[in-house]
Amino acid sequence: MVGGRRFRPGGGFGRQLDEYETRVGVVPSPESPAASHGLVDSAVYLRGHRFASPSGLAETYRCLQEQDDAMAWIGLYRPDIEQITSLAREFRLHDLAVEDAINAHQRPKLERYGHTLFVVLRAARYDDLREEVEFSELHLFIGPGFVVTVRHGEAPDLAAVRRRMETEAQMLARGPEAVLYAILDQVVDGYAPVVAGLENDIDEIETQVFGGDPNASRRIYGLSREVIQFQRAARPLLSVLDALAVGAGSASADEELRRYLRDVTDHLTQVVERVDGFRHLLQNILTVNATLVSQQQNEEMRSLTAASYSQNEELKKVSSWAAILFAPTLIGTVYGMNFVHMPELNWRFGYLFALLLMLLVCGTLYVIFKRRGWL
Predict the structure, then answer these.
(1) In the beta sheet, which residues pair with residue 126?
(2) pLDDT 10s digit of each residue in the chain, 375 long?
(3) DSSP string of 142-187?
């Protein structure tokens, strides 16, 4: 608070803070217990060893001021606006980078603002229960003597990265670039279970398609979207790693770190190639599924046509016999009216004539229907 008013940086960042407060509600004061909810872990390292474990950002700043060669590693999880403002003011973070960290929904990228690097990573995690891929965003501010990580999701497990680095003091002593490498390595390693999960899903889809499952098309479409999102998370990271490997991250980055980064690049390249293969394979499976569905529909149409033809043939036979039997019925009905002035009633051969007439009409109709193939 400055003069009773909340501190507001100038430019677009100030507008972003206003919008952020509108979305999340009233910003807690520094004394509020909720003000430190975004701080997961904060540590100050000296020559690769944990020197102090501050309980808040202000204490972290004091430790850095007391030790010239110290490095602070601050881990945040969905931080509140006061913490973002404090970090931006203390480490002189650029407004545009802070805006991206607040808004999230960024693609993987690396940008340099003076002596500070801003890195955006997209981590992925495969949910075995739902058989879905979950994506989360991670922002890193790398500068002289500090590393700030801002997580907007559950992955990656940065606590595991911190524990690993704290057991490798020699690597951690290399500075913020070593922490960046470790986090990149963790993100890329996290892609491996996702690739395995997607591969298993594709195998299941192939079984569904050739098994005639009607829900296969819906699952193919959903999996294709996940693969596309995975491509958008992994492929841009290649350019980030390439830039870091050639020294874009820091002019003082040593050759050993570059070797480690090139190893991460090799692993990521394999992931990207496999994911590209998944996308082409899903397109082929979708085409095959469409072909099989079309063939099934054609078979059903042929079956319906055959059934309709058979019904028509039966109807012809029934109609033919009905017409043949109708003729004697008609003749018998006429002669059964017993009118007085019917010449055939008193004729000796009238009965025989009626029978012969019935046989003649029925025989004629039978011959006609037989020639037409109705009988």
Answers:
(1) 133
(2) 333 323 333 334 344 434 433 443 333 333 333 333 478 888 888 888 888 888 888 888 888 888 878 888 988 888 878 888 888 888 888 888 888 777 777 788 888 888 888 999 988 888 888 878 888 889 999 988 899 998 887 778 888 888 888 888 888 888 888 899 899 999 999 899 989 988 888 888 888 778 777 777 778 888 888 888 888 888 898 888 888 877 655 544 567 788 888 888 899 999 999 988 888 888 878 777 677 666 666 676 777 777 777 777 777 777 777 777 777 777 777 767 666 666 766 777 777 777 787 788 888 877 887 777 777
(3) EETTEEEEEESSS-S-HHHHHHHHHT-HHHHTT-HHHHHHHHHHHH
Strands 146-151 and 132-143: antiparallel
Q: Are 161 and 190 in contact (CB under 8 A)?
A: no
**Residue whose entry in the numeric block shows the structure tokens 């299941």:** 204
| 165 within 8 A of 179, measured Cβ to Cβ | yes
Residues contacting 165, CB < 8 A, separation 6+ = 171, 172, 178, 179, 182
DSSP track, 265-287: HHHHHHHHHHHHHHHHHHHHHHH
For residue 40, which phi and psi values (nearest 5 degrees)?
Answer: -85, -50
- Please work out, in degrees rounded to the nearest 5, the angle formed at the alpha carbon of residue 110 by the alpha carbons of 105 and 113: 105
CA dist., res. 94 & res. 316, Å (int): 87
Alpha-helix residue ranges (DSSP H) falling in the chain = 11-24, 57-66, 81-91, 95-103, 158-166, 169-172, 176-210, 216-245, 255-335, 350-371
Query: Which residue in the block uniquely carries the two structure tokens 């397109």?
Result: 283
Full DSSP string of 42-69? EEEEETTEEEE--SSHHHHHHHHHH-TT
CA distance 146 to 88: 12
Residue 212 CB: number of other CB atoms within 10 A?
Answer: 11
- The residues near 248 (Cβ < 8 Å, ≥ 6 apart) are 110, 112
Q: Which residue has the tokens 């480690």?
A: 260
